[in-house]
Amino acid sequence: NVLTQSPGTLSLSPGERATLSCRASQSVDSNYFAWYQQKPGQAPRLLIYGTSRRATGIPDRFSGTGSGTDFTLTVSRLEPEDSAVYYCQQYGGSPLLTFGGGTKVEIK
Amino acid sequence: EVQLVESGGGLVQPGGSLRLSCAASGFSLSSYGMNWVRQAPGKGLEWVSYINSGSTIIYYTDSVKGRFTISRDNAENSLHLQMNSLRDEDTAVYYCARDLPRLDYWGQGTPVTVSS
After folding, report:
1. Each residue's pLDDT tens digit, B72-107
2. Strands A103-107 and A9-12, how do they pair?
3. A41 contacts: CB under 8 Å, gap ≥ 6
């Protein structure tokens, strides 16, 4: 199951809303869809799991929606520390687990 | 506090071998499936392998099948990845990650460079 993320790069100002898209080549079980944030030199961090559930300690400005083949991560009010690459991920099928190619969010 | 610490990475020639380890603390490894995920320089994340809690279910991505072997020692709270017949394209930072099946905790990664 191939996951395609768009846009490749998003350049926005603090306080703006960021909308990141992830499209799957085959339908995904929404219980097994997640989003991760990765900052330079750091390991990825789980943001959202089960399509819309925030992981522990994740602020409520991060939200996830979607079903089937189309999923969205929204950051309602960008802060400077949100500058990172964001990856979507699905679990199940073959291969067992796949990641999207990532969306880089730049804060102006 | 949950912690995962990888070790064993380094520089190896094409065709060589390395054994990566992941030491878990703050939780009982025996209760969780575990994964290896890698990231080539400047590239995205690539899942490599999964092992369930009892080592009865194991999966690999196609590009490493027959060359890599995942294993675990629950008594030692450790996860391993034996990598043989290494290729240039295996160069990456290798992360271990706990499986729920969401990957909720990750180690800091260990770099592997395959080069002559």
Report:
1. 999 999 999 999 999 999 999 999 999 988 999 999
2. parallel
3. none
B81 in Cβ contact with B20 (< 8 Å) = yes
Cα of B78 to nearest chain A Cα, Å: 19
Q: Is the dihedral of CA A83, A87, A88, A89 positive or negative?
A: negative
Hey, of B35, B45, B59, B104, which one would you mutate to test binding to chain A, going by the most A CBs within 10 A of its CB?
A: B45
Instruction: Give the 3-state secondary structure percentages of chain B, helix then strand then coil, rounded to 5.
Output: 10, 55, 35
Inter-chain residue contact A45 with B108, CB threshold 8 Å: no
Chain A residues 7-26 within an 8 A CB cutoff of chain B: none
Distance (Å) from the alpha carbon of B102 to chain A's nearest alpha carbon:
6
Which residue(s) pair with A10 in the sheet?
A105
The predicted-structure confidence for A64-101, as pLDDT tens digits, reads as follows 999 999 999 999 999 999 999 999 999 987 789 999 99
CB B14 within 8 A of CB B114: yes
- On whether the CB atoms of residues B107 and B97 are closer than 8 A, the answer is yes
Using CA atoms, how far apart are residues A31 and A10, in angstroms rounded to an integer? 27
